[in-house]
Inverse folding.
């Protein structure tokens, strides 16, 4: 470590040579004079939080090679204490943290537990060590992490890192961290400059630091600067917040779209009000659950791919149930929409109870595959959850598939024909009964896909459908039964409207407001946004 | 015409209705009936179903050891389906028709408040095993869960301290009903007494079954930019699963904004990926990860029972939690009280419950207070580990006596520490 | 001109009697059963006897009779006006809440918190009654509001809906949205109506304790008499000219419009009457059941009301009453003895009735009787 800083002024080749020599000396020196002693290792592992943190700070002051791996092991809960010494346990094999030699794991070894504070300190210490890591990515992350717990004591370390850092991104973060550390310095001018620098950064961490400092600051000029910087940061952060609201609205809209699309097909194209739509979604969700279980049991290595199998299976499962419904009950009720409503409500009760009997009344757990966990950090204060991003893309894909099916395939042609004029379609040879079944199955299958998507964001239980059915109906009623585009507009519009309102009034009032809005809109325009054109006697 | 069969159809309908109450079950003289009133479906089933199984396990254990007063216990299980009026109706049925000697049940405070008038009017006995908001003390109820001074206040103390993160700002997030509202009222008064300003407290409520927490997590993130923030969550039921999922996906780490929950235990974490949640906290009077002989025996009993009865989830991965332990203590204390009183008569049992002790799985000798119908409890604060278990980071040195009337609510100093004589 | 002695005089059918002689006889039997026999069996006959009507039965039957009033209200709008509402639970609950507010005020200082404010306001830290509670102390005002609040809500909603000529399925879905939105509103504690806890722990009405057998029986008798009175009223209504126009609107609205009638006032009137009936039912329901919570406004409850009318037989006022008894009786029995079967049964009932029994039980019995009779009576549905 020490060697690096001696050589910054020399020519490249010689500098490199000297660096390597210095490193070798430093390491030798480290292991000889400043070795991580067993006592130090034990002090970091045992005792109350204050003592342990002090021990870590002490070790950090003169870091040695084994310190990093040891701290990492402690962060992973892989350190035990036995017979008065600390041991690292990895893969069932214990080893001494200082020498790295394998040791037999003694009986009665106690796990070293870390609370939040310790975890924070350990990650800060690791960040400090990582500042000098050879890997650029690690250095960048470490530099960003340094922003979290800045203190004037860290300044020398930051200076050293800055002196030899070449990567631009890492330099930026380091400078920010340096400013953050200087916020607490005793020099007024330094504090003021630090406040100004933080104001330019636009990072939520910076805002937190500025706010905390403002509460303690006594000098007026620094206070004024802090306030200016806060306003600056807030301005930049405001964009992140606005985009965040738009994203949540689109995410909700995409879910509403998936949920309402199947209903739009069955109602719009066939005039069937299907109160069991929610339960078809539930069937899709449970199909996903079963596929997940199969993968967990038989193909655990391919678990991340279970969704690829779950999507078609949930479509087919829901479509099959829908086709069955149509064949046994609905075909006798065409032209009687109110009776269809009641009959499908009855079917929904039966389906719910069936699922309760088969799977139990409680919720079942569906895990996200690893590529859908976590978030994508777009801006410092805007992280887009991956599962929601995937669902937006999925909803768009399903919409396009549906539009293509209805618009470009034979089945779609027949469905449109039967909708517009059933008698004529029958006269020209379309098997209307079969087309009805297939169209209903298609709508139900889309409901199954919606259920598959819902399983990734919410709870999966027998009541899954009940929470979404009113929303689905609202979207269909608002969008009108003329075109699929109406459903799209209605879904996205309601999603974004709801999320905007939620920011002001809270979730429940927003929902109520949206419902009232729809009720009022329907009074004005009973056919919805996109109405079916043409004359027809009222049903 | 229609009129002719009015009487016939009315009579038929009345007969069908009559079957509902006419078929009184024969009062078997050699069993003692106990009622189990837990939601087995609906939003609270995630938490309550396992309590029904705990009661049944304890009943099996007691019956195997000879029963109570020489008679076997016969459990009567009903499902109020997370529907509070149904809780009241089922309680009436258990006490009025099945004539049970005691009811073990309830989770949400709403369910308990719905059952309370029934149990008081019909002089029944209810054992309520879940942590709650206090502000209640009924002669007919024994509260084996924590009162706020045995859970909420110590948790907030921990978060204010250095080890907990020295929180300066607080988000009080809960489900919209009496328990979170009252607990937050108490916590506000407590925080105020510690010098926290109103602008540093943000209270939010979501309805039961709410599942879209995007905006709330975004709000928490924004609020935390104003100072070191801690979140106190009284969210109940299966809303916890989407909340924790959203929290994990948004990258809100426990080292930045710790979330302490009062209704989330090992069972509620089952359906969640706990790796991003490491470090978030819960405050209970028992954790499965406690190491002591009673707990080891309790866990073994439960896993054997779950395997034998093929209980979903627990047969492969048995989990125990605080309300299960409280239920277990409650039913054993009731048995001891009945044996002491030599009868199942409610008033005699109530008198015999005073001072009962039992060696609890939490490692202490649990004691039922002589007067105030609550247990003396140890408080543990646990942090979530990657495997869904809790790492105990703090505990009280000795059991704390419950204060059902919180000293932080004005007017409570006039209330007695025992049930009103009604 | 010839003296026209053989001009056929046009004899219009005279106003039908409200009930036939047999009908009046059965009505009297029902009245006596409710007002005299039931109190006797409950209060006078000792508890161990086989003839004793248990308290549990009294409250159960009282509850079912409240539901029967709702079913009657549903029949008025669905059977006779062709309007399927899937949100009538809202009016039922509104009436119940108004009565509940009065009962909460009557608890006075005897509640858990010891304050004269209802308990839930204490934990919300409210110091005084909000505006919508101001009239809840007076019994007379409560009685008026029980009818006025559902009526007003129905009027406003119905006026705009019927004026825009929203019909059929769209209307049903909009009523669903209405009751769902109201349920969400009532679930919020800030609305000041008890939130999720609802109202419970009632102590007395007009100073008389509720929890006594006498009061229970009194409420039972009151509900029964109200049911019979509503039945008579409904019968009078549908047999009047108003009722005939209504049925015409149900059968062929466009033609009625072209005949010079505006459907709006007819539909609106029957809609409001039906809502007020449900409100009264709700007000009678709450003291008997002892608790009310926004779950009463759930969409499932309202849809169940439709099935009572469907099972019993629409457009026959006695049918929905019978339907309410059958379905709720089955529910009470099955949820105790075989709870897993109950939902299968209810679901099958919905499906079966719409497919096979569009006229309901009443229609079935009529069909069976029709095998013996020659022709249906004039003015009744075939």
């Amino acid at each position: 470590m020490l060697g690096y800083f001696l050589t910054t002024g020399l020519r490249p080749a010689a500098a490199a040579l000297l660096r390597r020599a210095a490193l070798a000396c430093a390491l030798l020196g480290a292991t000889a004079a400043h070795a991580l002693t067993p006592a130090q290792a034990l002090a970091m592992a045992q005792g109350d939080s204050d003592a342990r943190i002090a021990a870590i700070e002490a070790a950090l002051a003169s870091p040695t090679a084994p310190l990093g791996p040891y701290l990492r092991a402690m962060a992973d809960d892989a350190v035990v204490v036995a017979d008065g010494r600390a041991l690292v346990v990895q893969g069932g094999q214990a080893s001494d943290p200082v020498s790295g030699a394998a040791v037999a794991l003694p009986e009665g070894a106690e796990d070293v537990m870390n609370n939040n504070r310790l975890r924070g300190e350990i990650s800060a210490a690791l960040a400090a060590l990582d500042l000098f890591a050879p890997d650029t990515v690690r250095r960048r992350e470490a530099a960003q992490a340094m922003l979290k717990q800045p203190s004037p004591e860290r300044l020398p370390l930051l200076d050293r890192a800055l002196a030899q850092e070449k990567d631009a991104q890492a330099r930026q973060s380091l400078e920010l961290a340096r400013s953050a550390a200087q916020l607490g310095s005793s020099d007024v001018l330094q504090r003021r400059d630090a406040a100004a620098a933080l104001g330019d950064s636009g990072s939520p961490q910076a805002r937190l630091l500025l706010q905390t400092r403002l509460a303690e600051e006594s000098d007026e000029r620094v206070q004024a600067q802090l306030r200016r910087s806060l306003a600056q940061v807030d301005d930049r952060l405001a964009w992140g917040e606005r985009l965040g609201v738009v994203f949540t609205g689109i995410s909700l809209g995409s879910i509403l779209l998936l949920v309402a699309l199947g209903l739009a097909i069955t109602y719009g194209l066939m005039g069937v009000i299907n109160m069991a739509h929610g339960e078809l979604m539930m069937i899709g969700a449970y199909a996903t659950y079963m596929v997940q279980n199969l993968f967990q049991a038989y193909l655990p290595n391919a678990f991340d791919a279970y969704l690829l199998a779950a999507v078609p299976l949930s479509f087919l499962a829901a479509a099959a149930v829908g086709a069955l419904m149509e064949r046994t009950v609905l075909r006798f009720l065409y032209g009687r929409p109110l009776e269809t409503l009641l009959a499908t409500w009855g079917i929904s009760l039966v389906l719910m109870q069936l699922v309760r009997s088969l799977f139990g009344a409680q919720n079942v757990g569906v895990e996200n595959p690893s590529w859908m966990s976590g978030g994508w950090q777009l801006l410092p204060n805007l992280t887009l959850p991956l599962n929601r991003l995937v669902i937006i893309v999925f909803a768009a894909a399903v919409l396009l598939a549906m539009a293509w099916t209805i618009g470009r395939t034979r089945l779609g042609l027949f469905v449109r024909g039967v909708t517009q004029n059933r008698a004529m379609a029958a006269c020209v040879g379309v098997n209307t009964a079969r087309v009805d079944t297939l169209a209903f199955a298609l709508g139900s299958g889309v409901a199954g896909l919606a259920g598959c998507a819902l399983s990734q964001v919410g709870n999966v239980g027998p009541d899954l459908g009940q929470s979404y059915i009113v929303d689905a109906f609202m979207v269909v009623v608002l969008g009108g039964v003329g075109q699929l585009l109406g459903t799209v507009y209605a879904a996205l519009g309601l999603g974004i409207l709801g999320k905007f309102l939620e920011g002001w009034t809270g979730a429940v009032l927003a929902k109520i407001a949206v419902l009232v809005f729809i009720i009022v809109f329907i009074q004005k325009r009973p056919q919805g946004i996109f109405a079916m054109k043409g004359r027809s006697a009222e049903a | 015409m229609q009129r002719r069969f009015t009487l016939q159809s009315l009579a038929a309908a009345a007969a069908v209705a009559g079957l509902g109450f006419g078929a009184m079950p024969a009062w078997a003289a050699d069993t003692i009936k106990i009622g189990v009133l837990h939601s087995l479906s609906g939003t609270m089933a995630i938490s309550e179903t396992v309590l029904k199984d705990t009661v049944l396990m304890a009943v099996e254990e007691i019956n195997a050891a000879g029963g109570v007063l020489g008679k076997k216990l016969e459990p009567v299980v009903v499902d109020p389906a997370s529907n509070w009026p149904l809780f009241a109706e089922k309680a009436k049925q258990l006490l009025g028709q099945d004539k049970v000697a005691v009811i073990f049940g309830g989770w949400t405070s709403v369910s308990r408040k719905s059952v309370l008038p029934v149990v008081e009017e019909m002089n029944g006995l209810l054992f309520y095993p879940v942590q709650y908001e206090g502000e209640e003390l009924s002669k007919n109820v024994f509260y084996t869960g924590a009162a706020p001074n045995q859970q909420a206040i110590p948790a907030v103390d921990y978060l204010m301290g250095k080890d907990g993160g020295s929180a300066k700002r607080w988000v009080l997030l809960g489900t919209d009903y009496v328990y979170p509202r009252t607990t937050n009222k108490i916590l506000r008064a407590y925080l105020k007494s510690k010098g926290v300003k109103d602008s540093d407290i943000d209270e939010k409520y979501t309805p039961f079954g709410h599942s879209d927490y995007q905006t709330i997590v975004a709000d928490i993130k924004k609020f935390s930019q104003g100072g070191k923030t801690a979140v106190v969550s009284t969210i109940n039921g299966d809303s916890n699963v989407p909340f924790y999922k959203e929290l994990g996906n948004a990258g809100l780490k426990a080292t930045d904004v710790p979330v302490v929950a009062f209704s989330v235990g090992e069972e509620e974490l089952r359906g969640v990926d706990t790796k991003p949640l490491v470090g978030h906290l819960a405050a209970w009077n028992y954790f499965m990860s406690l190491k002591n002989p009673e707990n080891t025996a309790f866990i073994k009993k439960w896993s054997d029972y779950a395997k034998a009865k093929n209980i979903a989830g627990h047969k492969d991965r048995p989990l125990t939690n605080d309300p299960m332990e409280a239920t277990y203590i409650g039913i054993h204390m009731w048995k001891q009280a009945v044996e002491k009183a030599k009868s199942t008569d409610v008033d005699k049992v109530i008198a015999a419950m005073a001072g009962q002790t039992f060696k609890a799985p939490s490692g202490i000798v649990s004691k039922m207070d002589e007067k105030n119908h609550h247990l003396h409890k140890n408080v543990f604060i646990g942090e979530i580990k990657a495997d869904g278990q809790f790492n105990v980071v703090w505990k009280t040195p000795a059991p704390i006596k419950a204060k059902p009337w919180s000293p932080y609510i004005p007017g409570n100093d006039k209330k007695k520490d025992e049930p009103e004589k009604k | 001109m010839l003296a026209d002695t053989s001009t056929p005089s046009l004899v219009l059918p005279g106003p039908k009697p409200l009930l036939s002689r047999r009908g009046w006889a059965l009505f009297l039997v029902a009245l006596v059963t409710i007002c005299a026999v039931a109190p006797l069996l409950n209060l006078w006959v000792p508890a161990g006897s086989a003839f004793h009507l248990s308290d549990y039965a009294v409250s159960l039957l009282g509850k079912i009779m409240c539901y029967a009033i709702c079913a009657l209200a549903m029949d008025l709008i669905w059977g006779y006006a062709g309007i399927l509402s899937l949100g009538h639970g809202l009016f039922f609950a509104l009436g119940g809440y108004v009565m509940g507010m009065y009962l909460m005020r009557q608890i006075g200082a005897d509640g858990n918190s010891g304050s004269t404010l209802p308990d839930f306001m204490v934990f919300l830290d409210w110091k005084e009654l909000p505006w919508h509670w101001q009239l809840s102390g007076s019994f007379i005002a409560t009685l008026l509001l029980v009818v006025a609040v559902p009526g007003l809500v129905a009027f406003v909603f119905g006026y705009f809906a019927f004026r825009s000529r929203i019909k059929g399925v769209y209307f049903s879905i909009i009523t669903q949205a209405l009751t769902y939105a109201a349920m969400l509103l009532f679930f919020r504690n800030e609305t000041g109506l008890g939130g999720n806890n609802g109202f419970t722990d009632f102590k007395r009405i007009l100073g008389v304790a509720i929890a006594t057998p006498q009061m229970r029986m009194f409420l039972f008798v009151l509900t029964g008499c109200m049911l019979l009175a509503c039945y008579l009223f409904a019968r009078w209504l549908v047999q009047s000219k108003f009722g005939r126009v209504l049925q015409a609107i149900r059968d062929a609205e466009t033609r009625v419009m072209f005949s010079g009638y505006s459907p709006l006032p007819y539909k609106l009137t029957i809609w409001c009457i039906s809502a007020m009936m449900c409100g009264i039912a709700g007000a009678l329901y709450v003291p008997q059941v002892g608790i009310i919570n926004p779950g009463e406004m759930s969409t499932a409850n309202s849809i169940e009301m439709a099935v009572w009318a469907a099972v019993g037989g629409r457009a026959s006022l006695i049918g929905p009453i019978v339907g309410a008894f059958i379905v709720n009786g089955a529910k009470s029995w099955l949820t105790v003895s075989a709870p897993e079967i109950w939902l299968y049964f209810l679901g099958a009932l919905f499906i079966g009735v719409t497919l096979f029994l569009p006229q309901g039980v009443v229609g079935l019995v009529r069909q069976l009787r029709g095998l013996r009779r020659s022709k249906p009576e004039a003015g009744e549905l075939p």
Summary: Chain B touches chain A through 61 residues (CB under 8 Å). Chain B has eleven helices and 15 strands.
